[in-house]
Protein: Glutamate dehydrogenase
Amino acid sequence: MFNRAVALMDLPPGLEEKIRVCNSTYTVRFGVRLRGQIQTFTGYRSVHSEHMEPVKGGIRYAMGVNQDEVEALAALMTYKCALVEAPFGGSKGGLRIDPRQYDEHELELITRRFAYELIKRDLIDPAQNVPAPDMGTGEREMAWIADQYARMNTTDINARACVTGKPLNAGGIAGRVEATGRGVQYALREFFRHPEDMAAAGLAGSLDGKRVIVQGLGNVGYHAASFLRDEDGCLITGIIERDGALVDPRGLDVDAVRDWIAKHGGVSGFPGAEYVENGALVLEQACDILIPAALEGVINRTNAARVKAPLIIEAANGPITAAADDILRDKGTVIIPDMYANAGGVTVSYFEWVKNLSHIRFGRMQRRAEEARTRLLIDELERLDRYLGDAWALRPEFKEKYLRGSDELELVRSGLDDTMRIAYQSMREVWHARPEVKDLRTAAYIVSIGKVAASYRAKGI
Ligand code: NAD
Structure:
């Protein structure tokens, strides 16, 4: 995918190679005493590009973690950050572990030990390398990592900025947990603002009533599905999970399914919907929008030709293999690429990092001042209101909305929405302006590689 994009760019070959390769990968094997014996774990932290520092990227807990995967995901982070203009290089980490096999205390011991190994080599550091959650990790793990860093760097006033995705009470930011899912929603909203782009997928109208199938009802999939259902009127006609899939053409209640999974460990047995044991088959069902939000490689050369969705938005990282990408492109499927589609997480992580470095919650200084100024205007309008009598009156709901200053959550959403719109527009401009660019993914690569190349050039490399 990278090669396809650079073939359409005019980069010196040396620079092209410099951008492509992964700068470094650190492998750590460490022991933790658990249940009376020492267990050895293998973890990685890979740095793809340091054209901007700190470098940024999540830490994944999964059995499939390996060096190749971590390096590929680190590269994706470089391009993702460049595309959404988050001032970071790309990195990624992973620990080969099945977190469901350990209790909370054991996971804390393992996470702190892994963090210790990375911190002492500056592979976690507010100025150099800032992790975030990924598959299998969340706020809880990030809080342990932040605390571990603070213990090892007692005088670092910016310690909290060493990791993002923390809980609010430990230096997190409002709206981070749902940020990636929210970003997927904003990405789709922006796509649906451009009739020309919708037509490329054979779609028309608005998001309202569109049939959506989502794979993976975890952090990203759950939030994307529930926002699209509750706020945009989409019908979630299929949910694919580890143990199978649920299908209901009338639309599934996403919260009820999530509660069911939490109680029963899977989707099977959920009342009122058809259960399909081989969940992967549901990827091939007819729908308007397919959202793979679980893991990579799920759409590959074996099933791509049968995937019917005209629009796929890659909420997960790398859910479509390169071979499947070719098949789908030839079929005319429009793919909103991962590099853009799931960048909501890193965007809000960027806001969290800025908040930690500035040591103040967004909106704290200006919110009441903003309210006082709007109050002045409302008072003046009300004076006019009395003068004009019944002919004209301010609606109470307008007054209430207009008077309220923005809190942190509103500011975060506004920043995320703006980021997703601008990044989409930068991709579509290249997609439409250059006939040799046939898809959004190639356009996304061209935009982001162009930005990384500009950074290297500015450094004199
Ligand atoms: P998560 O662990 O919260 O959720 C993953 C979900 O997928 C779980 O519900 C799991 O049961 C399900 N799943 C696992 N294997 C499956 C299978 N074979 N078939 C169907 N479902 C399966 O993880 P997440 O944080 O939501 O991440 C999902 C994807 O999004 C990953 O590719 C991750 O790299 C990417 N991503 C996450 C973020 C973030 O902020 N969390 C940001 C960017 C990208």
The chain has two domains: 2-178+420-458, 202-332. Residues 408-433 form the longest helix (26 residues). The domain at 202-332 is CATH 3.40.50.720 (Rossmann fold). DSSP finds 16 helices and twelve strands in the chain.
